[in-house]
Amino acid sequence: MSQLPLEAYDYLIVGAGPAGCLLANRLSADPGVSVLLIEAGGRDNYPWIHIPVGYLYCIGNPRTDWCYSTEADPGLHGRSLKYPRGRVLGGSSSINGMIYMRGQAADYDGWAAAGNPGWAWRDVLPLFKRSENHFAGASELHGGDGEWRVERQRLSWEILEAFREAAAQNGIASVDDFNGGDNEGCSYFQVNQKRGVRWNASKAFLRDIRQRPNLQVLTGAEAERLELEGSRARALHLRCQGRALRVAARREIILCAGAIGSPALLQRSGIGPRPLLERLGIGVRHELPGVGENLQDHLQLRLIYRVEGVKTLNRIAATPWGKLGMGLEYLLRRSGPLSMAPSQLGAFAKSDPGQARANLQYHVQPLSLERFGEPLHDFPAFTASVCNLRPTSRGSVQIASVDASVAPLIRPNYLSDERDLQVAADAIRLTRRIVAAPALARYRPEEYKPGPQYQSEEDLQRAAGEIGTTIFHPVGTCAMGQGREAVVDARLRVHGIAALRVVDASIMPSITSGNTCSPVLMIAEKAAQMIAADARAAISMVPQREPGCGVSA
């Protein structure tokens, strides 16, 4: 993999996150095409990327994270949130929670019903399976020969077992697998690890193909803008190690920069809402009002409970001996707390009986802290984070400057819809019922956040704004569809611009019911097939010369 780009490639891929890494793998499998994969961050050789608990040292670290922040959010009482996005080979798969989650079949059936043929559950399940390397091997629901390793977690906690039993006592049954199309129930998350080590997209899709002569990976290169020729994308302008570079695309430019980066790059290129582009003096090359709109995210409410008489990570990590023991256990066995995903136990439930399907997701952790990046509390506790899987609030991403080094303005508009406030209040009530169940009684759980003083509907809605924080699932800002607000069609081609696609979480018209990393891989798997099919169709349409019809002097 060379760091020196040629002047032109068949395919330019912007962003080496999950989608970009998979696409680079699939497209370069054809030796007749050339592929350049462009990543603004560096190589994934930072040790904390690979130790699962190292996400604590990757989030908020400019070595691996874009370190974005949201604008002050009225729904969160004016708070601004840190908004992590991976800036390294592997993208957010190098810093995320490693949870393997597809969502619900109805999510994808809804995409198809909204006018996006080929995206129903029956269409996408084979794509999930194609890239999957499941610990149980191939089956009707899982793939066994793919690159994306899925394993069970390598530790258990008494307090989590008790929470699982308490959930069952509240009608949330224990299940074995969240990934069959209906994830309602409670279970331990399956994770993207291999023998206790993080398995990111760079390892999965790039490591074994690095010798392909038709694939080059350029790190430390930020895409500044697209160059258009009429209504066709022709080239990318990059900045790499202080140098300005121009690289042309013979076939297509594919944006895999994520729900923040892809709309920002389009806007800097004059593709987006006219008022924004004119206000910044960019000029409108192609008006697409939906670029940067429709931002959706899962807002998690982090309820914290003090407990007695049970082991939690707070106490284990509080002493030098505890930390030494954790380090030795990981060194010798690749297990123990250092092998932990941020969340171990999950549950999917209905916020009220009137819901047609599970609309809440729990991430339950045997630890507590005020916020990511801060020390653990000095008392034993667990955290039950709960999020609304299908929020109705919508936000936006808008560039603040044509200068790519200036961070965009991220406005999630959490809890701006009354329906989300209702779900939030119901979620807190359900959590309290679970924690009050007999299975947890022996640990004497005491609510630390938000606190028992919040009781009325108004109180609970206010509490949601006080304790709510992102669970790092932004999607939807280059939505797929056919209406005025749509940015790409069902083949992920940008409306009105030839040779330009978006392939990442931004194309989701509505957010999936769970963690979003593996759905992005599915999107890229489908895109790879569509790109190859479109290339074959284009070649078949090129007129062939009749024998004897050469040009004479």
Automatic annotation (TrEMBL):
Transmembrane regions: none
Pfam families for this protein: GMC_oxred_C, GMC_oxred_N
Record keywords, A-Z: FAD, Flavoprotein, Oxidoreductase
Presence of the UniProt keyword Flavoprotein in the record: yes
Family membership noted in the UniProt record: Belongs to the GMC oxidoreductase family.
Taxon lineage: Bacteria, Pseudomonadati, Pseudomonadota, Gammaproteobacteria, Pseudomonadales
Residues the entry annotates as binding FAD: 88
Gene Ontology molecular function, alphabetical: flavin adenine dinucleotide binding; oxidoreductase activity, acting on CH-OH group of donors
Designated name of the protein: Choline dehydrogenase
InterPro entries: FAD/NAD-bd_sf, GMC_OxRdtase, GMC_OxRdtase_N, GMC_OxRtase_C
Start and end residues of each Glucose-methanol-choline oxidoreductase N-terminal domain: 86-109, 258-272
UniProt KW Flavoprotein keyword: yes
Cofactor: FAD
